[in-house]
Write a structure and sequence with these properties.
This protein has about 300 residues and is α/β, with parallel strands linked by helices. Helix content is about 35%, strand content about 20%. Helix 7 links the parallel strand 15 and strand 16. The two termini are about 30 Å apart.
Length: about 300
């Protein structure tokens, strides 16, 4: 019998798909709908200590092969958002609380407060490319990543996932730093830094000028990143970037991902994308003699002696 269930750092997922942070996770109701649609786990929007309005419009540009966004981490703050997490938990799937902060102490405090909301794990946003003072600016060097992960782990008892930036010369070095800092898993990748210019207006389209590129265009970068990270660390890897069908997910799984997150695919294809990915995974497994997802993790790598 084909088995799609995944054990991820002690979290029991009914399948390897997860709702990625920042898409369809603003409210408890929307997260519930993602769970009911078949997502194996839910990652909340990134939440900070205080309310944040984000960047001025336009915030999103639709491209031929993806999205460019510069939302600027808008959120109501951890205290208000806790009620949304309480509602999301009705869905019966693991909830991973995403947090961001300006330094290791703020992130540690947020990790503790996020755990108190009842989440099953905490994801550290160390990779947003368009929020000054946060995200990638905190997670751009191995030293900072290790320090932040160590402080977050010391502040909570649930698993801690470090979401890494691809805007670096060596994402595997960042993953190794997260592992040294005690992270239970790494998530790769967040968006690629980009810009779109309107020739008619002779200026960048986004209100923030620079944004983060997601969707099918970044999938080869994400797959390569997961492949490199899998060879560099022993902790689980979660793949993100351009997943909208079973084959997309398989690329990440065979590169070394234990689970995958879907974000832009929800924007473009709707919540049915979770069921579609799972059905196509099961079909591939049935046709190729796999009975468990774990049997496919990392098979694209040369056999290890």
């Amino acid at each position: 019998m084909t088995h799609l269930g995944v054990d991820l750092c002690g979290l029991k997922l009914k399948n390897p798909t997860m709702l990625a942070s920042g898409v369809f996770d603003e409210t408890g109701r929307s997260m519930l709908e993602a769970a009911w649609a078949g997502a194996g786990a839910i990652v909340t929007k990134s939440v900070g200590a205080q309310p944040r309005h984000g960047h001025p419009n336009p915030c999103i540009v639709e491209l031929q092969n993806g999205l460019l966004n510069a939302m600027g981490l808008p959120n109501p703050g951890i205290d208000v958002y806790a009620a949304e997490i309480t509602e999301a938990k009705i869905g019966g799937v693991p909830i991973i609380g995403s947090i961001f902060g300006g330094d290791e102490r703020e992130i540690a405090d947020l990790a503790s407060r996020m755990q108190a909301t009842g989440v099953d794990a905490v994801e550290l946003n160390l990779s947003c490319p368009h929020a000054k003072g946060y995200g990638a600016e905190i997670g751009s060097t191995p030293e900072l990543v290790e320090t932040v992960c160590r402080h977050a782990k010391s502040a909570c008892n649930v698993p801690v996932f470090a979401k890494l930036t691809p805007n670096t010369s060596s994402i595997s070095s960042l993953a190794q730093a997260a592992e040294r800092g005690g992270a239970d898993a790494v998530v790769a990748i967040n968006t690629l830094k980009g810009m779109v210019i309107s020739p008619a207006a002779k200026m960048p389209i986004l209100g923030n000028r620079v944004g983060g590129l997601s969707g099918p265009a970044v999938r080869p970068v994400g797959v390569r990143s997961v492949y490199e990270i899998y060879e560099a660390v022993k902790i689980p890897v979660i793949g993100v970037g351009g997943i909208a069908c079973g084959n997309d997910a398989l690329e990440y799984i065979m590169a070394g991902a234990r689970a995958v997150q879907i974000g832009t695919g929800v924007w473009t294809d709707g919540l049915g994308v979770f069921g579609k990915v799972c059905r196509e995974l099961m079909q591939f497994m049935d046709e190729n003699g796999y009975s468990d997802i774990s049997e496919m993790v990392g098979v694209a790598h040369p056999a290890r002696p």
